[in-house]
Amino acid sequence: MIHKLSVGIFLICLWLLLSWHFTPLLLGLGLVSTLLVLYLSIRMEIIDREGHPLHLTLSTLRYLPWLIVKIVQANLDVTWRILHPRMPIDPTQEKVKCSQKSDLGKVIYANSITLTPGTLSMSIDADTIEVHSLTSTAIEELRQNTMDRKVTQMVGED
Amino acid sequence: MLIAATTAILITMLLALTRGILGPTLYDRILAANMLGTKTVLIIAVLGFITGRPAFLDVALVYALINFIGVIAVLKYFEYGSLHHAEKHDTPDEEQP
Amino acid sequence: MQSVLVILEWICLLGGSFFLLVGGIGILRFPDLFTRFHATSVSDTMGAGLILTGLMIETLVQQHGFTPLVKLLMIAVFLMITSPSATHALAKAAIHGGVKPRLADRAKAQDDENGADR
Asked: What order of strands is seen across the sheet that includes strand A92-97?
């Protein structure tokens, strides 16, 4: 119930932010489309802890800055490798352990890996992620499980 | 400075287009198309500011949505041969290459 | 205050342009499909992120108001969610379609064979 309510509030806020017109006609149209979308997503049964992870809001705000710093570092590294005349790359492919139990946690971890330039998640199994990496140092860093622990902490399973 | 950014985006689109034309495999081409789409989102946003109409951002937002769905749809099509049966794994015609 | 914002905007836009170009060069220079993913990821995260940040500062400078800022933020968040998903789907489809990644220890051997990946 709380998820449905928060999806509704979220959709209304989205409409108001995107339109920013407060005439009765546009507000009415916004209400109608919000209710329609809410009805459709309830019928599709996509509103639950996974489809609308309300409980992650605060921990996401803690996780994002760390991820952004990581992304900037990895970007500078990959940029250096692209512009270097000899392209010092040694592509590696390896399985990396992931300790998240829920699908949502795994998706967040895999997406974080892919979002960081230099590493790319290729397939996800029960407790491993197949990672293709531009350099062996990048995968060395992943194997220290810092990101894995951060994501697990964020999703709230230890 | 916005003009410089537009130029850079256009050159990047040109480079991605070159990869799309050269690209040895089908997936290189889809990758190039995906990159072109992302750059299009950026160029629409920047052009909105150059012409002084931030309302262009709505177009950019919708383009970002369509680009993602388009790439997924193309991949699904090439993976399963149709846009229809991909969800069901027990359909017999799914296994045919 | 205004001039600080303008200088910050220039830095963001120029930096974003630089990383976009790097991504474009990378997608041409890198030897095989899977390494090219890393090049696009540079222009999708850092390039797009910096350009959008520059535009956000532009809305503050021009005082366009609140909505353009939120829309730019939404575009940034949306790209941040969809771009890895699309890349992952593409990588998975490529493996499924039989493209083999060219790895470091095999790369040297393959150089004599003149490239076994199509």
From this structure: A92-97, A128-133, A119-124
